[in-house]
Write a structure and sequence with these properties.
90 residues, six-stranded mixed β-sheet, 32% strand, globular
Length: 90
């Protein structure tokens, strides 16, 4: 068994802050929270307010991280029946 198979996954919604043009990952312990945050961001184009992220990190959008604090990261954008692309949030 690999380390990743035993380590809890972090689910992440990738959004872009239109005030700074910086890409961010909103990190969650549970997939439904990340999926809900991404859907809200796509729909409202504002920072997801109802979904409190476990953590938020700025990223290089060309090479988003695959791990955070030793845990594997799974980005939900375009997966798990979510919209494709990165929503712009104001």
């Amino acid at each position: 068994m690999t380390k990743d198979a035993r380590t809890p996954v972090i689910y992440a919604a990738q959004v872009r802050d239109m005030h700074t043009a910086i890409h961010n990952l909103l990190l969650y312990d549970r997939k439904p929270a990340a999926v809900g945050a991404l859907r809200e961001a796509h729909k409202t184009e504002v920072w997801p307010q109802r979904h409190i992220a476990v953590n938020q990190i700025e990223i290089n959008f060309r090479r988003p991280p695959t791990h955070h604090n030793g845990r594997p990261v799974r980005i939900v954008n375009g997966h798990f029946n979510t919209p494709r692309g990165v929503p712009d949030c104001y």
